[in-house]
Amino acid sequence: MTAQPTDIATYNFAYLDEQTKRMIRRAILKGIAIPGYQVPFASREMPMPYGWGTGGVQVTASIIGPDDVLKVIDQGADDTTNAVSIRAFFKKVANVAVTTETAKATIIQTRHRIPEHPLTAGQVLVYQVPIPEPLRFLEPRETETRKMHALEEYGLMHVKLYEDIARHGRIATTYAYPVKVEGRYVMDPSPTPKFDNPKMHRSPALQLFGAGREKRIYALPPFTDVVSLDFEDHPFEVQTFDQPCALCAAENVYLDEVILDDHGGYMFVCSDTDHCEKRREQGHRGHLAPESPLEKTEPAQ
Amino acid sequence: MYVAVKGGEAAIANAHALLADRRRGDRSVPALRLDQIVEQLALGVDRVMSEGSLYDRELAALAIVQARGDMIEAIFLVRAYRTTLPRFGYTKAIDTGAMLVERRVSATYKDLPGGQLLGPTFDYTHRLLDPELAAGGDVAEPLQRASEAEAMPRVSAILAREGLIEPDGDMPQDHIPGDITREPLEFPMARDIRLQALSRGDEGFLLALGYSTQRGYARNHPFVGEVRIGEVELELDVPELPFAVPLGSVRVTECQMVNQFKGSAKAPQFTRGYGLVFGQSERKAMAMALCDRALRATEFGEDVVAAAQDEEFVISHSDNVQATGFVEHLKLPHYVDFQAELDLVRRMRAEHDARENAGRAEEKREAAE
Amino acid sequence: MDIATQAIEGGFADPVFDAQTVFRAVMDAMARPGTLQPLPVFARPPAPLSATAGAIALALCDNDTPLWLDLVLQPPAAIKSWLGFHTGAPLANTPADAHFALIATPAEMMALDGFSQGTQDYPDRSTTLILQVSDLVSGAPLLLEGPGIETTATIAPAQMPRHFVEQWKQNNQRFPRGVDIILATPEGVACLPRTTRIKTMEA
């Protein structure tokens, strides 16, 4: 005998109810109007755990429409399990078109990376944010950090960065590197590598940040000044890699280190899988690239 | 040659299939029915309703079986469903004084109006595993007698008549209770908001914090004025109707903790700690009451010296759905960030080694001279 | 048509997708100040509340957002009951309590600083003003710059508030506090978030 599903539990269209969407939409508008300021919002429980991108999912669910084309990446890749899972969620609840191609997407939800392909006007980049408060690890209390933002009192952050220099000879922050927005709010860019920070500066795309567990939304409108904090004698610099991508030979992109064997063999490949595949389609070959062109990965429709 | 790993979608689908298989287990064993869980694992159902903030036994039972008995996972399932439900309104505050009581004990009085009612408690069971239960033996019907319909005033009300305990909350008349599921938390918070957060807070977390107050980390000299468990009526005010509409009843556990009052110029009187949860859970209601009292430290001019008194600390970390999510999310890929750290450590290591080598070379040179 | 019928009719035909379309237009307008984001007619509110302003209210307002109506919109009972029926938004007791303000005659409106400006701790707790204007070309030209604008943008909204440029400069100076403006025209929406600076105003 096959058990029939009962009508014991049913869910609304697009998962979020309309009242929740309105609440989130209002928060997004405030976020855009006050770039870098974290707008508190009544984050809902989502059908995926806190930490899996509930903030980003709520933001995407609130802005997405039937004409949108969605791309979801995690660590720069479209095929990491959680990216696959979130993409499948939106296909299921919003019946929306999906893509892996950065240029074709109208909404890109991301965890930990900004795509290598330059974003354009009309695109929205939605970041999943674990800890939105850039001062949180310096001051655990919300009551205190809120005051610091209100008074534009960011000395603590500079002290932290300076202590880094004293101890390590350099600023030892490599990801979630704090930025100052339009000369006012210090903002956490989410745990993207600092390599990606310059891409945020005056991007033509709208950038929205959702932190579900911490119940904050913030935003960077297009063409907004985003400056990584630094010191005159220790200017901000991004990571550089000594070798190009082993598959597509790209330089000046962010690379993942892949362990090849247990004898210390490793190689570096593009973290942005779409970028890497596009380059290989165009005939670029790295020194470890397979002979035959790679099969293209499209998410199942 | 290297080919990157692909096929996340298939892997996820297969994992779900395997999960479904493991959940069902040996097919020769009959599948659990929800009514079996509702009836026979009732306290588990109660915990899921309480921390899931949704009073629905059947859904809670479904969540428990779907979660393979993982209570936090079940609570999460219920929360994620609850959040999609439309909000029709807010009931009137329940009157626990008018509760149809099944259990009621007071530690502060030997006897009191309405009496002490042990009810269905583990308290005096000898914790000996019961082979008869394992064999599925019949259970005799309990003894029943007609209710005496004696009023059962709350102990706090008895104390209040003498002015020996502080009044029951001092919210202004026009105060509209907040709703933590509809508004973002803000610190410091009003007590109504805090109590909501505690009521859905993790039982284990509140238990440990409550325990810590007893061991001297913000000791507040608690007495269980009363614990009562039973059914209370729910009523909804509808603007179009001249009377409140009865909606049915829910089972709750309430704990009124009577605590010592320290300091201040006010007349000496006891203070309160309050706990209220869905279903039957004395442990949770009592732990909540201890935490509530500890968190009122600032209100009474007490020094905040312990974790249980620290509102931001307690409330920000009491939600087990949030906590489990953020702890467990560490297993998601972080290799982009790790790469950034790896790069930094390698560079710093290289510099360190260079310095060491230079130092050793210097030592050698000096020794040779 | 009696008020009861007027109150019920003229809402979104498709609440989910209409609200999403209107919101996206407002979001894009807020993200790119000075651009007109076109909107079809989704709502038919009682006059003098415009279709665009009405649609924005339906998309963004509900019982969590006290609403302020200007002197022209306050008297008609039909408007209050239409907004009440479709959004559930309560009317704000004072402009400073309002999350949103609907302004049918911006030229006559009270000063911007009479609305909620938010606080230094919570600058988001400010009033968003929805101004009905007939177009973005026939008024005094405003040269805009700031976040969301690559270099500069120019709009010339009609019927703007008195001393608007001076009032807006003061609004800028209150940053991060301040009000944000949504301009509702028959063709669509444009926005002036508090970060937008009006560079010069030609005569």
TrEMBL record, chain A:
InterPro entries xref list: PhnJ (IPR010306)
Top class in the EC scheme: lyase
Purpose of the protein: Catalyzes the breakage of the C-P bond in alpha-D-ribose 1-methylphosphonate 5-phosphate (PRPn) forming alpha-D-ribose.
Protein name: Alpha-D-ribose 1-methylphosphonate 5-phosphate C-P lyase
Entries under Pfam families matching the protein: PhnJ
Gene transcribed to yield this protein: phnJ
Catalytic reaction equation(s): alpha-D-ribose 1-methylphosphonate 5-phosphate + AH2 + S-adenosyl-L-methionine = alpha-D-ribose 1,2-cyclic phosphate 5-phosphate + methane + 5'-deoxyadenosine + L-methionine + A + H(+)
Organism taxonomic ancestry: Bacteria, Pseudomonadati, Pseudomonadota, Alphaproteobacteria, Hyphomicrobiales
EC number of the protein: 4.7.1.1
Keywords, ordered alphabetically: 4Fe-4S, Iron, Iron-sulfur, Lyase, Metal-binding, S-adenosyl-L-methionine
Residue ranges, annotated region (Disordered): 281-301
Domain of life of the organism encoding this protein: Bacteria
Family: Belongs to the PhnJ family.
Molecular function GO labels: alpha-D-ribose 1-methylphosphonate 5-phosphate C-P-lyase activity
Organism: Mesorhizobium escarrei
UniProtKB/TrEMBL annotation, chain B:
Molecular-function annotations in GO: alpha-D-ribose 1-methylphosphonate 5-triphosphate synthase activity; lyase activity
Highest taxon, organism lineage: Bacteria
Enzyme class: transferase
Pfam families noted in UniProt: PhnI (PF05861)
E.C. designation(s): 2.7.8.37
Key words, A-Z: Lyase, Transferase
Protein name: Carbon-phosphorus lyase core complex subunit PhnI
Gene behind the chain: phnI
UniProtKB/TrEMBL annotation, chain C:
Enzyme class (EC, first level): transferase
SUPFAM superfamilies: PhnH-like
A Pfam family annotated for this UniProt entry: PhnH
EC assignment: 2.7.8.37
Matches recorded under Gene3D superfamilies: Bacterial phosphonate metabolism protein PhnH
Keywords: Transferase
A GO molecular-function descriptor: alpha-D-ribose 1-methylphosphonate 5-triphosphate synthase activity
Designated name of the protein: Alpha-D-ribose 1-methylphosphonate 5-triphosphate synthase subunit PhnH
